Amino acid sequence: MSEHGGNVLEMALKIGTDAENIIDFSANINPLGMPESLKTAIVAQLNRAERYPDVKYRQLHSALARVHHCQPENIMAGNGATELIYAIVHHLQPRTALLLTPGFAEYRRALQRVGCQISDYAMSEADGFQPDERLLDVLAQSRPDCLFLATPNNPTGLMPDAALLQAIVQCCHQYQIALIVDEAFIDFLPEATGLTPQLAAFPRLYVLRSLTKFFAIPGLRLGYLLSGDQVAIAQMKQLREPWTINAFAALAGEIILDDHAYIQATHQWLAQQQRWLYQQLCSLPALRVWQGAANYIFLRCLKPEIDLQQALLQHHILIRHCANYPALTRDHYRVAVKSAADNQRLITALQQVLGHG
Q1: What is the pLDDT of residues 59-103, one digit of tens each?
Q2: Which Enzyme Commission numbers does its entry carry (predicted)?
């Protein structure tokens, strides 16, 4: 089983069809597609492919800094947020770490690569797959070198309580625990500011951002890391391999965050389709559904005899099976929120598969 969603080609080969025939609900990509502003810019600047990008990506870092009201020295852009997860772990060299489960697989893999001892803070259905004050006690007692936290979480799509999140930030600051907060999907939450305004006050706070999902550029790949610790950022930039960001991904980062019409259209689409899809999924008695904040919905199939991913593949629909997430089972799944037509096809197929037609 793939560690990530989006393995459409593999699944298409499995059922003997072309990848183009499968509707991919396994990868959480904005169905509005790449912004027209970026398409126009790429076509107009195709000659960027004929020269090396600036190895320091000065224009890109300046554009990101302008959006976040900080200095370019507080930001390191990368080939998706994944590159930066490995970069921060390599920089910190933690001996011990705490991970919330279920959670994104690359945190664990990056930590294992440096020989870190990992402890799990398990979240379960009984606690709504959410951390509570118990996490503060665990941090105070175990005092790991670092904690990874995703807001919203992947795969559940849930945001932690705002007061608890702030208490976690304070607790990590008090005990000198490096806190890496993954905000890869926070752009989908129009009211969420994230933790970037607090970077100056908490030097061991690191915030990961991704532009891949919101702006539908998984083939370009672009993410960035923000920190109040400019020395740490400078050291990571110095150690990285040159040119990990291609010229068109760098161009994307220079312009798309200013495309306010696209950002507004995305928020309007999600507000409508997320609510509709959640309500439709909840209407199916064989599913237990969690109301997430992002552009994907987490669920459990209450009919264990049905492999929902395989059953839906027969309808040329691919969803994310979550069995390989620690703390989850073969009955847990994640579905992206897509266009109205695609969402309707998913519900129709689920009604047939689950016998609720």
Answers
A1: 999 999 999 999 999 999 999 999 999 999 999 999 999 999 999
A2: 4.1.1.81
